[in-house]
Design brief:
Helix content is about 55%, strand content about 0%. The chain is mainly α.
C-alpha cells in the first residue's frame, strides 16, 4: 500500500486492528490449532512470577498472557 503520509499509515493500521480486536484471540486459536494457549502457559511459567509478585504488562494486547499470570 502506498500512504500519503505517516499519519495516513497510522490511521489505516489503527483501523485494521480496531476491526479485528474482538476476534484476535479466536483467530490466534484457530490459526495455531489451539497451540497459542500452550505457548502462553509456557511463557507465563518462564517469567517466574509467583503469588505476591507485582507485574506490569505494558502493551499487553488482549491481556491473555497477563491473565495467566494472575493466580485464581
Amino acid at each position: 500500500m502506498n500512504f500519503s503520509s505517516p499519519e495516513a499509515k497510522e490511521e489505516y493500521v489503527h483501523s485494521v486492528f480496531t476491526r479485528i480486536a474482538k476476534y484476535y484471540d479466536t483467530m490466534n486459536r484457530v490459526i495455531s490449532f489451539n497451540q497459542d494457549n500452550k505457548w502462553r502457559r509456557q511463557a507465563a511459567q518462564k517469567t517466574g512470577v509467583r503469588p505476591g509478585h507485582h507485574v506490569l504488562d505494558c502493551c499487553c494486547g488482549t491481556g491473555a498472557l497477563t491473565c495467566m499470570l494472575v493466580p485464581l
